[in-house]
Automatic annotation (TrEMBL):
Gene Ontology cellular component annotations, sorted alphabetically: cytoskeleton; nucleus
Family recorded in the similarity comment: Belongs to the actin family. ARP6 subfamily.
CDD domains reported for this sequence: ASKHA_NBD_Arp6
Alphabetized InterPro entries for the sequence: Actin, ATPase_NBD
Gene3D superfamilies in alphabetical order: 3.30.420.40, Actin, Chain A, domain 2, Actin, Chain A, domain 4
Superkingdom in the source lineage: Eukaryota
PANTHER family for the chain: ACTIN
Entry keywords, A to Z: Cytoplasm, Cytoskeleton, Nucleus
Subcellular location(s) of the protein: Cytoplasm, Cytoskeleton; Nucleus
Organism: Myripristis murdjan (pinecone soldierfish)
Name the record gives this protein: Actin-related protein 6
């Protein structure tokens, strides 16, 4: 029987059969300024000639799946002929859900998977649990690990002991990639150019030029210098979607510090925004969000665990999710944790080579596990016992 692994994130869906490679596909629909009436789904984004002013229709709001119509259309597209050609009657699915998901959302998901698509069997699990499974598989001698998953809507911190999640230690910070992009849009719109409708373009700017500062105040001082002394400043060439299809950062040696560029390129000049935006992950209070930053939340989470386990958590911190890809993220987190944690305990933070697909890879490993058949709910089980059997089996 084929097993399909779907890490159903709020921004991208990571999907693939357990014997193949993963595909990362936008988990939403789009409408473009030029063709308002046509809706594009998932990876049809590539067909849009002019993605400026792109309007996103997202199935997730604040990290929870609320728009089932959009989610169904995305799934229809993913499971359909163009993509994975799923034979539902012979396929088992591993699908992710957020921590502390609402019962109503879980029941809707059970119904859609079993009654509409009619999968042979299903396993609904947290993405962090798959990441932990991946980590323990690679490090069999370790007993504990702490998964830090910083995604589109939230950042979750979840301790695991021997693949079991410790619910009392799970923390959530309401800061994710969406908030960072929106904040960057506001800063640029206020200082330079109105870009509030350009989510797609500014998200790309964020990924291309932002980084996590190791010494925030020192970088702030550099960002205030004039001319070539300002080593933080970068010029970003915005796409016009005819000759420039994708925005890019001008090489430092080509930057003009006095006067204008001769070419007709549209330029964004970025200085302290480059590190002030990702800084929100470490100090949300900078923009008035009354919450802990990631380092404090990790310490808080570890301190809620039994004392003899705490050293193990500090040594096995695993980073997943798109925000961990900012240059300097891992080093800064390790340095901040070092100053907050007890001095006699070693601190070790691991950034996998592909933190976005780390939990999907964990799902792939789990589906090859000899106990996999014990974990899933089959369609017969579901038809006989309804939601009750899913509740009983999936809260692992």
């Amino acid at each position: 029987m084929a097993t399909l692994v779907l890490d159903n994130g709020a921004y991208t869906a990571k999907i693939g059969y357990n014997h193949e490679k993963v595909s990362v596909i936008p988990n939403c629909q789009f409408r473009s300024k030029t063709s308002r009436l046509k809706t594009f789904t998932a990876n049809q984004l590539d067909e849009i000639k002019d993605p400026s002013g792109l309007f996103y229709i997202l199935p997730f709001q604040k990290g929870y799946l609320v728009n089932w119509d959009v989610q169904r259309k995305v799934w229809d597209h993913l499971f359909g002929k163009e993509m994975f050609k799923v034979e539902f009657a012979d396929t088992s699915i591993v699908i992710t859900e957020p921590y502390f998901n609402f019962t109503s959302i879980q029941e809707s998901m059970n119904e859609i998977l079993f009654e509409e698509y009619q999968f042979q069997s299903a396993l609904r699990i947290n993405a962090g649990s798959l990441s932990a499974h991946h980590y323990f598989h690679m490090n069999p001698s370790q007993l504990c690990c702490l998964v830090v998953d910083s995604g589109f809507s939230f950042t979750h911190i979840a301790p695991y002991c021997r693949s079991r999640k410790m619910n009392e230690g799970i923390s959530r910070i309401n800061v994710g990639g969406k908030l960072l992009t929106n904040h960057l849009k506001e800063i640029i719109s206020y200082r330079q150019l109105h870009v509030m409708d350009e989510t797609h373009v500014i998200n790309q700017v964020k990924e291309d030029v932002c980084y996590v500062s190791q010494e925030f105040y020192k970088d702030m001082e550099i960002a205030q210098l004039k001319g070539e002394e300002n080593t933080v400043m970068r010029d970003y060439v915005l796409p016009d979607f005819s000759s420039i299809k994708k925005g890019f950062c001008k090489p430092r040696e080509e930057m003009v510090f006095t006067g204008k560029y001769k070419t007709g390129e549209q330029i964004l000049r970025l200085a302290n925004e480059r590190f002030a935006v990702p800084e929100m992950l470490f100090h949300p209070s900078d923009i008035g969000i009354q919450e802990m930053g990631i380092p404090e939340a990790i310490v808080h989470s570890i301190q809620s665990m039994p004392e003899e386990m705490q050293p193990h958590f500090y040594q096995n911190i695993v980073l997943t999710g798109g925000n961990t890809l900012f240059p300097g993220f891992r080093e800064r987190l390790e340095a901040d944790l070092r100053s907050l944690s007890p001095s006699h305990l070693p601190v070790s933070v691991l950034l996998p080579t592909n933190p976005i697909c780390y939990s999907w890879e964990g799902g792939k490993l789990l589906s090859h596990n000899p106990d996999y058949d014990e974990m899933v709910v089959t369609r017969e089980d579901y038809e006989e016992n309804g939601h009750f059997i899913c509740e009983e089996k999936f809260d692992i």
